[in-house]
Fold this protein.
Amino acid sequence: MAGAREELQKDLEEVKELISKATRKRIRDVLMTEKHKLELEIKNQPPPKPKEVAEEEKSSLGGYTVKINNYGWDQSDKFIKIYISLNGVQKLPAENVQVNFTERSFDLLVKNLNGKNYTMTFNNLLKPISVEGSSRKIKTDMVLVMCRKKKEEKWDCLTQVEKESKEKEKAAYDTSDPSEGLMNILKKMYAEGDDEMKRTINKAWVESREKQSKGDIPMDI
């Protein structure tokens, strides 16, 4: 559309130049008719998008997007508060820091902070929140996301995934047999440990087997 408007404008300028040079009335009348026709076409064209607006939109989503993984959180009776550290965020226009809430999720988008966009998404929140009562605050080098609880009750964690993970971990340790619980802990330490940890656990296991074979201890670890 912008190209068509530009071409019409060029035609109009050329017609105006011809009118200024025309000496015969009939020729001038024909050119004036064409001039009015071009002016009407230009008037009916959609207005061009201002260059500065186009540049602003381009820059607002320029650069690349960084996923935020580090945050802190706490809670009051009424709110879950998530603290996200972002250097210089207070210098951005307020509209560049956006948070969209649903009853069980929120996502944060910070646009064009030092040439980068930053995002954070929380799905499957532990309990429902009030969309209307939730908000965000911009502080020095920090964004504070405030999720209004629908019920004033304590949250043990932020999401259902965290809750399930904790329950599985607890189930691995809570056994009726103390030796089985100890074995589960050792297996977890072995699986997550470095080479030095693995060597230490292997050595302890070999020594315990040797002691058991001599009758020093009854429990197999």
